[in-house]
Amino acid sequence: MYIANQLISIKSKLPKTVTLVAVSKTKPNADIQAAYNAGQRIFGENKVQELVKKEEELPKDIQWHMIGHLQRNKVKFIAPFVALIHAIDNLKLLQEIDKRAGQNNRKIDCLLQVHIAKEDTKFGFEIHEIKEVLLTTSSFKNISIIGLMGMATFTNDNNQIKEEFESLKTVFDSIKNDKLTTLSMGMSGDYKLAIEQDSTMVRVGSAIFGHRNK
Ligand SMILES: *Cc1c(COP(=O)(O)O)cnc(C)c1O
Questions:
Q1: In terms of Cα–Cα distance, which of 51, 76, 77 is closest to 64?
Q2: Cβ–ligand 1 contact at 204 (below 6 Å)
Q3: What's residue 214's pLDDT?
Q4: 46: Cβ below 6 Å to ligand 1?
Q5: Ligand 1: which of 47, 148, 187, 204 to mutate, most ligand atoms within 8 Å of CB?
Q6: What is the pLDDT of residues 110-137, one digit of tens each?
Q7: pTM over 0.85
Q8: Which CATH architecture has domain 2-209?
Q9: Is the C-beta atom of 200 inside 6 A of ligand 1?
């Protein structure tokens, strides 16, 4: 019951406008099934191999989100089914997704990852690059860029997290339109701060499923 209770408790804290992605990486199918049985249909994974395996084994009406760094040579494995790719950080990756989506007669939704953290270990485009990237990508036929994604620095300093989310919200506000509607920011430790900055999609793992080993 732990997972169902956590899920329901978190959902009750989210505004109706915010989509919850349940991040199930490293967790067994039984845990995902427990969240599924409690009504959850959107799950996020960050490793292609694990995502593909879970997609095969679990109910077909799950919408699978790829939330992690994605290598070009692995796009082909998820192109047949992936519902949303969160962490686009270069144009060659988009080119590959466009090609593989076309081969599968699909149009794949994507988010551009924006580098907002002060740590330089996090991937993403710089804020000043976003408008140009959007112009460049408007020619891709088989992908839809539907918004932006970002990760704050891993820190206890709430002011810093807030500032980083604010910077992402500001870029998002400057580009959002009928097609660019999704702002993916917020994880277990900072989703409340993210919602205050108008996040529309939170990616919550450990607060639902419990801590991950390593
Ligand atoms: C693991 C992960 C999450 C969820 O992290 P939690 O702290 O467990 O909620 C969110 N987003 C990305 C990109 C992740 O890799």
A1: 51
A2: yes
A3: 58
A4: yes
A5: 187
A6: 999 999 998 766 789 999 999 999 999 9
A7: yes
A8: Alpha-Beta Barrel (3.20)
A9: no
